[in-house]
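Problem 12. The chain below contains 225 residues. Write out its predicted structure in token notation.
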Amino acid sequence: MVGPCVFKGCAQPAAVGSKCAFHRYRAQCRIEGCCNQVYARRLCVGHGGKETCEVDGCGSPARAGKRCSKHCTKVLGLCGHDGCTNAVRGAKTKCFAHAGATLCGVAGCGAAARDRGVCWPHRNRVVAASPTPSISLFSDFELTPRSSSTLQKEHGDNEAMLPTELMMALEDSMEDPWASRMDEDILAMDSFMDFGGFISLDLMDVSLAPLDSCTTQGTTAIAFE
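Solution.
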């Protein structure tokens, strides 16, 4: 009679040795009698495979050096802003919230600018609504870099810096079904702009294929020059 899988919590029958088909490539903790999966160094999390915070009594995973995110302020240092107890970020002397960041150029948006002066959500809406894959709306203007503190974000001190044409495209895309597409699907369009490919768009999925296999039945093919 075939016994159950060796791993803790798995009731599937063993198919390969003492492991089920799902766990057949998983390694077992080297500690005798332990039925957990290996996390690192042939050990499970409970037996030291995942390093924990060095602070006594804290069992949280180590994030910065040998300490968790809660106790790493003693390693990285505290934010220089008065009254802030957050850890500094990178080589800065302040945390992310107080270091200042370039805001999205859309009026009223307090998100950080990620690509060509706008945040990812607003950038993706323009990509989805644009009639051309080159996204000429973005190439026709330049934004003036600016910094915004947490206080400015809270009070909505963010004037529009985008041209009227781009703002109209953003407004129109709010009701466009493509506006809710996943970020990776939208960004995939840019990655094929320089390779002579096309993106076939339908209501269900985004698929990539060579230009010579393009078919326009039931889909809309967008060719890249």
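Discussion. The CA atoms of residues 117 and 143 lie 6 Å apart. Students who got a different answer should revisit the alignment rule from Section 12.3.
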